Amino acid sequence: MTAVPVHHVVTGPDDAPVVVLSNSLGSTMSMWDAQAEALAEHFRVVRYDTRGHGGSPVPDGPYAIDDLADDVVALLDTLAVDRAHFVGLSLGGMTGMRLAARNPGRVERLVVLCTGAHLEPASAWHDRAATVRGQGTGAVAEAVVQRWFTPAFLDANPDMKASSEGLVAATPAEGYASCCEVIATMDLRPDLPTISAPTLAIAGADDPATPPPNLAEIADAVQDGRLLVVPEAAHLANAEQPATITPAIIAHLAGDPA
Fold first, then answer.
1. Is residue 160 in some structural domain?
2. How many domains does the chain have?
3. What is the pLDDT of residue 104?
4. Exposure string (b/e) for 216-241, b if CB count within 10 Å is 16 or more?
5. Rounded distance, CA 196 to CA 217, Å?
6. What share of the chain is helix, strand, coil (3-state, %, to 5)?
7. CA distance 128 to 25
């Protein structure tokens, strides 16, 4: 499949180092709202919607992880960016790992949040894809958001709960289902030892979808990896605990020692 021109927004100084932000399954670039302004003080921030999500095209599936990486390469080429930092959460983190392994010249530093190199069982992802194709993304929205945030956060932030469920439900069914198939068929474990970009792996301590051992596996296997486990955070840890995560991202991308 050929690369698609993904919807993107660029903020921050034109002459600053570039950082690309990649969203999770069922969200859009808006999931980085808690980070975007602070990052733009230091970097040229490129936020984009993964294919099948938000304002990006929705090609017929299935998709593969290389398709998502190809979209990022095409985006960098469009922006005339040779090399960039990459920050991705969940599906976005998978995209970043594949890009860093396959196109090492394009990735300066890497941050992966709440993700995994291989998520089993594949049958669960195929089942979710079938549900969404048959019933729409609204059928899974409530269950998805229950995993995005801790129960305490959802109880304290009913508006965030409602808007997040709306975000999932607004995701095109084919885009969501095809990205489920990306996860079902993906195994990045052989890629990890080839990743030379300094990598920060951030886990939510309470993440039921990609718990801390998933991120520890990544940090241990890449050539230059470090693990940060964030308390009181589930799958969208960046939105739940920005006061911890945003400074950690900035420090890592700036090359500051831990």
1. no
2. 1
3. 98
4. ebbbebbeebebbbbeebbbbbbbbb
5. 15
6. 50, 15, 35
7. 12
Interval 3-24: pLDDT, tens: 999 999 999 999 999 999 999 9
Kind of pairing between the strands at 84-89 and 225-230: unpaired
Return all residues near 215 (Cβ < 8 A) that are at least 6 apart: 112, 114, 115, 116, 201, 202, 203, 227, 229
What token pair was written down for 70?
């190809």
Dist. CA 112–CA 184, nearest whole Å: 19
Look up residue 71 and give its two tokens.
Answer: 């979209």
Identity of the amino acid at 154: L
Which 3 state secondary structure label does DSSP give 205?
coil
Domain carrying residue 219: 8-118+187-253
pLDDT in tens, 44-68: 999 999 999 999 999 999 899 999 9
Looking at the domain assignment, is residue 137 inside a domain? no
Question: What is the model's pLDDT at position 253?
Answer: 98
Give the domain CATH number at 59: 3.40.50.1820
**Residue 224 belongs to a domain:** yes
What is the per-residue pLDDT for 181? 97
Residue 157, in any domain of the structure: no
User: What's the pLDDT at 258?
Assistant: 54
